[in-house]
Amino acid sequence: MGAQATDGVYGQRVKQAMVSDVVAVSPTDTLSEALTLMVENKVSALPVTDSRDRCLGVISASDLLGLTKDLGDELNELSHTGGLAKDLLVEHLSESDLLTEPVQDLMTEQVVNIGPEDTLAKAASLMVRNRIHRLAVVDGSNHVLGVLSTMDILRAFSEEVFEQMVSIRRDLHQHPELSRRESRTLDQICKHLDRLGIQYRKGVAGNGVVAEIPGRNPQLPKIALRADIDALPIQEETGLPFTSSSDGVMHACGHDGHTSMLLGAAECIVAEANLPASVRLLFQPAEETGDGATAMIAEGALEDVGLIFGGHLDRHYPTGDIVITDGAVNASSDRFQIDIAGQGGHGARPHETIDAVVVGSLLVMAIQTIVSREINPAHPSVISVGRFNAGTASNVIAGAAQLTGTIRSQDQEVRVHLQQSLQRIAASVGQLHGARMEVTIDEGTPPVINPPEIADLARLAARRVVAEEHVIPMPTANMGGEDFGRYLEHVPGCYVRIGARFEDRDNYPAHSSKFDFNEQALGIGAAYYHSLALSAGRHLAEKHSL
């Protein structure tokens, strides 16, 4: 692994990625002038240089935040996002005398620098180790030549790996495979893992792959990163040049992107010379049928895993946003079937029948009272009847009917309540009208619930990839099912949304024939996974004192 740290994007020299047009301040400039430069240039720190451009230290928004409470909220925003409204700045500066002091009184003199010939791998390690987002690039005489940020590294990553991720994604999109039939997809994943020199076990849970990137401390629990790989039975109508070549099968939920994103992350993670903990890559089949995760777990996918992370491309959010929420982020998803046995007969003699259509219709309406009258409105829940089959002819009163639908909730106790209420109401409606009712409930995926402390860890990793303002919570409950919850029943973890919205064209819902996503999100997602591998690894090392 260490030998590969000089290959690929992380083998590039700092001078290839740094920004040479440096905005700096002198030690005698005022703090007010420094803050104004930060705001105008949308940066959260500035190098402090002398008249010969030699680096003397760094002044940051965090330094200013510690100086005065008058600028508290706004400076805190600046320290995270690099942005602050100018009118607020002017207002606060006019009220504060503290910012008239010289920069040299507050600057940090012991700064972490890097040379132009050093590798991006070294730069990334320095940033992670020191928990900083920028490095001053200096020569042997300590002259400032430029600045390197995490976003500069991401751009370098994008240039080298992004096109490859797009190529993988488009190949998978053009050759989609349904759940439990992902054989070609499996072969493509293995081909790219072979290229990276990553060991793997294939054929897990049918067409799944479990790969492993060893860390420096084998005693630590492993970190798992998961991507789903299957497609949907939908006829594609996107008109894309790489549209599905398989009739009636389409990647309409972004799993082609999830797979390529994890492969892109693997390319960066395998190049890490100082990876804290081993990283396990889970390429999971059969997510759409809801049983892929269970099968992966049964075949050892979570063995020795301490934390697991996953994500979903989402056109509801702007590209560049990473959506991380404490608590429930996906609902449970259970299927039900209700068979109604009445008494059929002639349409002219309804008094001789027990009309299954009428009984079924009354049942559909009665079901609506469960969520609206039995469940606390603070607990999002849905019972949907998706299919109602009955009858054979217009002049025949149906003696049988069948209803099918789904039950969704983000709380396990509420989930049980919904199931029991459905059975109770079905039995009552049947008894009221003399029909026999048979209710079958097929328990599907559990809710996906992020523990707050692991969500915080995910946010930390995300903030090293995108600005604070782009790490946001989910504004409304997502009632879709996701079998990632199966993993969280065994180990703690976090499931996030990766913004993938188009700003210049229409966005279509997942599971629709015109679904597509902004491929620029692939770079964000891959960089997030890479950051997670480092942050989560350090978290485990601290937790286990190793």
Automatic annotation (TrEMBL):
Sample GO molecular function, one term: hydrolase activity
Gene3D superfamilies (UniProt xref): 3.30.70.360, CBS-domain, Zn peptidases
The chain positions of domain CBS read: 18-74, 107-163
Q: Which UniProt keywords apply?
A: CBS domain, Hydrolase
The keyword Hydrolase is annotated on this UniProt entry: yes
Can you tell which superkingdom this protein's organism belongs to?
Eukaryota
Entry's Pfam families? CBS (PF00571), M20_dimer (PF07687), Peptidase_M20 (PF01546)
Signal peptide (residue range): none
Matching PROSITE patterns, A to Z? CBS
Coiled-coil segments: none
Q: What is this protein called?
A: Amidohydrolase YhaA
Family named by the database record: Belongs to the peptidase M20 family.
Spell out the PANTHER family in the cross-references: METALLOPEPTIDASE, PUTATIVE (AFU_ORTHOLOGUE AFUA_6G09600)-RELATED (PTHR11014:SF63), PEPTIDASE M20 FAMILY MEMBER (PTHR11014)
